Amino acid sequence: MLAEARARDAADPLRDYRARFDLPQGVIYLDGNSLGALPKATAGRMAQVIRGEWGEGLIRSWNSADWIGMPQRVGGKIAPLIGAAPDEVIACDSTSVNLFKLIAAALRMQPGRKVVLSEPGNFPTDLYMIAGLEAQGLAERRLVPRERIAGALDGDVALLLLTHVHYKTGAVFDMAALTRAAHEAGALVLWDLSHSAGAIPVDLNGCGADFAVGCGYKYLNGGPGAPAFAYAARRHHEALEQPLTGWMGHAAPFAFSDDYAPAAGVDRLLTGTPPILGLAALEVGIELAAEIGIERLAAKSRALSEFFRTCLDRAGVELDLVSPADPEQRGSQLSFRHPEAYAICQALIARGVIGDFRDPDILRLGFAPAYVSFEDVAQAAQHLAEVLKTGEWQREEFRERAAVT
Ligand SMILES: Cc1ncc(COP(=O)(O)O)c(C=O)c1O
Ligand SMILES: Nc1ccccc1C(=O)C[C@H](N)C(=O)O
Question: What average pLDDT does the segment 366-372 reach?
């Protein structure tokens, strides 16, 4: 498979982008869906922001380096990756906080309705944020298995909150169909794009979506704890009332008024002072994704994961695939169920193949298209085949659970 992999790498239109990332020697990185790799340009850009803009410019840089405009500028660069207009996206806070703000804002727009509908097994923070608002008496959480979501959209549902690409299985929801069904029932829709943005095409405006959020540190390669993003369709801007009414979301923060008045547009989703260092790193990652283009990223992602499956087949590996077999129906990952998934994952990591484990029994491998090569994929499949055949995962050291998996 190695020869075939090398031929595919040679023919890959994205082959030169791998060199734009700093990847450690001897590592095959299949966890860009949890923490994206480091773009080579990031360190230089950070040095410039730290030494030049912060060290030299000091407070002046809010104006001279346009720090104050960074949430909008960076958000605007995310927009084309998710089918939004630049003035509909802002980079700020964490995905969790953005969920809170937008769920609460959506509930305010839906008098007489309190139900926030989602699926059990959605990413925990999404479910916890609904529960937090429920504890405040503002929401009522309703969880329905994914195949029954459309049928559960009744007149009580204020908001449908779904993760577009499921973090564990990689299964993709039909955004257009579910958004339409929600609207027909009078509900609004909030999409969590954490595992979509920078990996597969998303057309928020084409689908008529209302709101969206997503992480900056996965396929956007913004670095650990990078700022997240929030999207609100332009038609909702005027009515949008989010509860974290900090001064940076004020219409005139530097008027220092005692009374809150929301800024126009998505600017009102801001809360406190933007994290400039984090935004600067995120901007580098986004520029790289935008340069490659989402269609090319998605095509490579599908090709990589399909190639991995072919390699496993040819190596005679039989694993229980929990991701959809059709690459069009999944994000940029393959997840396999195995009772010893944790130990297998650790054994792979010991061989330099970094994937991750999701409780209780999922081995999850992400194929970040910007920097994973076909050779990586062939070698990872070979390692996995060997780990399974030799039973080396049974070693005691591979059973010890780390705090972060
Ligand atoms: C679907 C989804 N939503 C949200 C998050 C995380 O949000 P936060 O960055 O606030 O921890 C993740 C990953 O951690 C995720 O996979
Ligand atoms: N933020 C993290 C911090 C530490 C370890 C993992 C994460 C993840 O992002 C996990 C990811 N959301 C997942 O889909 O599992």
Answer: 98
